[in-house]
Each structure stands twice: as structure tokens, then as C-alpha cells.
Specification:
With about 110 residues, this protein is an all-alpha fold. Helix content is about 55%, strand content about 0%. It is built from five helices and no strands. Helix 1 runs antiparallel to helix 2, helix 2 packs across helix 4 and helix 3 packs antiparallel against helix 4. The N and C termini lie far apart (about 40 Å). About 20% of the residues are buried.
Length: about 110
């Protein structure tokens, strides 16, 4: 299966799957790794994960919640961070208990 076929398959899921879950699927399929970042030279990538997640939230804050414009940052965070971390941080942001960059989309 080539990249185009994978994208078509994932696009077929749009509307059937939660949008955040679809982002997660796309992040894992289309870009499985994050490029090397000289700020994080060690094997432990925990700080790299934290930085990527906060860069995504900061992008949302700067673009007033434009998820499409910040898609690459979200994809990078999902690619490097364990699922349970991003899920916990997403919940923390929704509840107002996230210790990183503060941004909550207006509903």
C-alpha cells in the first residue's frame, strides 16, 4: 500500500471517527518520526515531547485555534509522545489544569 492509498483510506474514515483520533491515525501513518532537534541530544525524548506538545498549543493560541494551520505541530507531538501523555494533557487543558502553555478554545 503506498502513501496515496493510505491517505485515501484515512480520508474515508472522516466523519466516522472522532477528528482527534483521525489526527492521531494520520500522524502515525504519514510521518512516523520527528526530525532530529539539536535542543534534545540525549536518548530520553521526554523533554522533546513536552516541547512539541507546547509548540502545538502555542500555535493554536497564536492562530486563534486554527487546527489546520497547526496540523504539522500536532502531528509531531503525536508522533513523539506516548498516547497516554497527550490524552492526559488534552484533558488537563480542557479542565484548566495543564501546566504548560495556556490556551482554551472558545466554544
Amino acid at each position: 500500500m503506498n502513501a496515496t492509498q493510505v491517505r485515501e483510506l484515512v480520508e474515508g474514515l472522516r466523519g466516522k471517527v472522532d477528528p482527534e483520533r483521525l489526527d492521531w491515525i494520520m500522524a502515525r501513518i504519514t510521518k512516523p518520526t520527528v526530525p532530529h532537534d539539536n535542543r534534545f541530544p540525549t536518548q530520553n525524548q521526554m523533554n522533546h515531547c513536552w516541547a512539541k506538545y507546547n509548540e502545538w498549543v502555542l500555535c493554536l493560541k497564536e492562530t486563534e485555534g486554527d487546527a489546520e494551520q497547526c496540523f504539522d505541530r500536532r502531528r509531531a507531538a503525536l508522533a513523539i509522545c506516548p498516547n497516554h501523555w497527550t490524552e492526559k494533557w488534552d484533558e488537563g487543558r480542557e479542565e484548566g489544569f495543564f501546566p504548560g502553555v495556556v490556551y482554551k478554545a472558545e466554544e
